Amino acid sequence: MAADLQLGGLEDPAGGAPVLLDVRWELGRSDGREQYEAGHLPGAVFVDLETGLAAPPSPAEGRHPLPSATAFQEAARSWGIGTGSRVVVYDAVGGTSAARAWWLLRWFGHRQVQILDGGLAAWVRAGHPLEAGSVERERGDVVVRPGGMPVLDVDEAAELARNGVLLDARAAERYRGEVEPVDPRAGHVPGAVSAPTAGNLADDGTFRPAAELTERFATLGATADRSVGVYCGSGVTAAHEVAALASVGVTAALYPGSWSQWSNDPARPVATA
User: Fold this and answer.
1) 165-168 and 113-116: which strand pairing?
2) Is position 232 annotated as part of the catalytic site?
3) pLDDT digit string (tens) for 44-75?
4) CB under 8 Å to 166, separation ≥6 — which residues?
5) What is the mean pLDDT of residues 208-226?
6) Is 30 exposed, middle or buried, given 0-12, 13-18 or 19+ CB atoms closer than 10 A?
7) 1, 124, 136, 189: least surrounded by Cβ within 10 Å?
8) pTM strictly above 0.85
9) What ranges in 45-153 are assigned the alpha helix state H?
């Protein structure tokens, strides 16, 4: 898995420009498109996480259920992704939103996708220009096949918390149950280990060096010889943790329903502190 993950710029030894996807999204904000139109990487297409990278929300499935193959294929084609396209995804929050596109493309069988390390801020720091307005690419012909990444359902997540390593990628105060801004109950899955996604990043928003990530995850019990899963609030930032783990050779399953599904089921126990 580690060899499949490339965190870096837009260099392509084989030549040719990649399909650039701008996944401007943050919890509690709805102005992603406006941010994109104000300035984005030249040629980048805006991806609406709520509609392009998720099915409609429900208490039973969570706030960002996985989209159907039909819906995602239509969206990916509209972004200009073809069967042989190389795709680079980015955002303005250290890749924590763009990783959802990285994960979904791989889950749907498209392996040629990268996260732009450091995202928009790194691009600007390097002195590269931005482009305003919107971009529409020629329609692609990608064919999707779900099942390319490991996933957990709610019962499998509960089992992994007991007998493996289930990482909670939310902020520590949400894990402890001190605050809960969006979901019905505060706390965490009993047995889960707190591993905030922000801990994957250096101060400049780039991924921490591999040695630091390896040490971090090993301290949390997440090593290549163990069964590892990740959840967050709704399966978005957990994808970033899956990517970080993959970069150091640890395969982790994503629990897509995450806390937004778990906390909506009164029969599921909740732990705090």
Assistant:
1) unpaired
2) yes
3) 999 999 999 999 999 999 999 999 999 999 99
4) 157, 160, 189, 191, 192, 193, 228, 229, 230, 231, 255
5) 97
6) exposed
7) 136
8) yes
9) 49-52, 69-78, 98-107, 119-125
